[in-house]
């Protein structure tokens, strides 16, 4: 019937559908379902006017004056014929045992669902609202309020008689009421009031903001978040009010409590209902839009928004448009939002439909991810919350993920995911391998084999299958690599190693190290060197205890270029380990690596010099021959070779400087004396080692020497520089000597302590007499030695100066007297 109704909506619905936005990529916060079963039957013949929600059941009022009790699935459990006209409101106490009902014809009923107590009254005006005390089940709390043109409080007295009193009147019809604890909040045409039932005082009045809206068409929505927080929604305005205790000093004639508005903001649409959700709000909004075709205003789908209140504004968390039956004909007053505090269930009530909204759980989150094809995120979410999910299995999500990757052609990724998803389920592994083989993805098959746990299958069967395939395609590198991995699983490391070497695969060295295959590679050293000589040499040198140096050298005997690479790296690590091969290395360096021959000759202490000299002379290696000649003590031959073979005067001069031999300088001068370019070089460099006059005197008269003037100027400049250096050093020396002399003089001018503890260095008796009255004479030298004057020898006639006998005897220099004490 609902579908038929929706088909009859005409152009207004068509324009609504055209205005719908595309589906957002943001995950919704709530999920929705219609309340069906008995509710569907009721709304086919009647229309919903109000509803109340209890944790145990629901109560639905209709336009035909019926009240239905429903379970949470919407099944009818009980029916009450209250009135022939519209039920305006239903109220329940917290226990769910007592119900209050009011209707448009002025009838009010309060009765026990499981007891016989009952209150009936018919008023002369429509009763719009009713609220029973939350603890009505208690005998001390038999109270309820009703509202029409005035708000009445009914209380049962001690004689079981009901008495009433007027709490408020004169401001139009009472259209909404909510009772929480000791506080009653209600709304009339002028605003919202709160009454304290304990102190019998009205504690606040919150005026209505938009007075242009008809209060009967856009009624106020009230909701208690807790015992002291009231949420007011009216028109497009939301206010959050907090009831607070007034300080005793502020009481005077004021109520003991007051209300503070802690948050106030405007919404985009008109509010039809409010409900709290933790620290957020759920808002049911009535929406009107303008048709693009007809330019007429029409009723759009209502919206259910979750918002985060802020002091002066709000932040939208989620927003959902709801397709309720007959939404095109509804007004703002036709919608109601009821909620169950214990389960976070929200009921959107309209005349022809009841929709239940609930928070999405982890299963719903995974559903959304799978719908959006976000399989990896869905798999991760399932693994994290595997104890909480009920409708999904990790394995099913994983298999769907693998299928998705295969469909997209991402075979490598799909194969790698098998290890994590399939675990040790052999049947699933076999199925996936078969699937890869069927679609012809050998690369994916190889990846799958690599990820496949080796204990899940008969390895020999797989090996034979791969080998059969290789008979048709022997050069298929993917299958060869797969076969090598299978051999590795089967611990057939020799065959695996051969395949890796044939393929020149980078994992060959890792395989050798991991499985300690050094005994298997003793006859494969050449293959390893050909593949990667650097890694091979490093591996061989790091494992000398497993493969000896002698064995490696023997294996490389037919490949001297590889032999040289190995021995060179060995020599770099340790100059002495391969000393028995140093003679061989001379020829290897000469043949394959001459730039490193000279460094080798310099660093090796085990190299036979005669053999090296012979090889270098045969190959005419001048620099190496020069070094060997000089090392063997034949410096003059070395110098002669530099001059005659290299014709490099700078090198000859450098060599002469290193040897620091006068005869070499003489030979160099004699060889250069008839060669003007050599003379220029000598003049430029000889000055600091040999007297340039020796060279200048030997230059033949009339010989043209290039840049002679510059060379002579340089000699003079060098000489002047030496003179300046000497003068500077002399000045520094004199200044230092004078400074030290002054310091010594200041030191010697200081006084010297002489007391009874000092002794005469000659007679060894105390330097001062025990009787201070006796006359005495003491001599103290700069060296701090002290003598009685009579103990010192009489100075000679040639020199009147006295010197310390001790320091003079020890050749420390004469210490002259600095002080003579007499008395």
Characterize the structure shown.
It is a single chain. With 823 residues, the chain is α+β, with helices and mostly antiparallel strands. It has 28 helices and 33 strands. The strands form nine sheets. The protein has a four-stranded antiparallel β-sheet, covered by helices on one side. Strands 2-3-4-5 form a four-stranded antiparallel β-sheet, covered by helices on one side. Strand 8 (107-112) and strand 9 (118-122) form a beta hairpin. Helix 25 (676-685) packs parallel to helix 27 (708-748). The relative contact order is 0.04.
Q: What tags apply to this protein structure?
A:
alpha+beta, single chain, Znf_RING, four-stranded antiparallel sheet, about 800 residues, 33 strands, zinc-finger
Blueprint of the fold:
Layout: H1 2-7, H2 11-19, E1 30-34, H3 38-45, E2 48-53, E3 58-62, E4 66-70, E5 76-81, E6 87-92, E7 98-103, E8 107-112, E9 118-122, E10 129-132, E11 143-147, E12 150-156, E13 162-169, E14 176-180, E15 183-187, E16 191-196, E17 201-207, E18 221-226, E19 229-234, E20 237-245, E21 257-266, E22 270-277, E23 280-286, E24 288-290, E25 297-299, E26 303-309, E27 314-321, E28 336-340, E29 345-350, E30 353-359, H4 362-371, H5 375-384, H6 394-407, H7 411-422, H8 426-438, H9 442-451, H10 459-472, H11 477-489, H12 493-503, H13 508-515, H14 525-531, H15 533-542, H16 549-555, H17 560-573, H18 582-592, H19 597-603, H20 609-618, H21 622-631, H22 635-646, H23 649-659, H24 662-672, H25 676-685, H26 692-698, H27 708-748, E31 777-781, E32 786-788, H28 805-809, E33 817-822
Antiparallel strand pairs: 1-30, 2-3, 3-4, 4-5, 6-7, 7-8, 8-9, 10-11, 11-12, 12-13, 14-15, 15-16, 16-17, 18-19, 19-20, 20-21, 22-23, 23-26, 24-25, 26-27, 28-29, 29-30, 31-32, 31-33
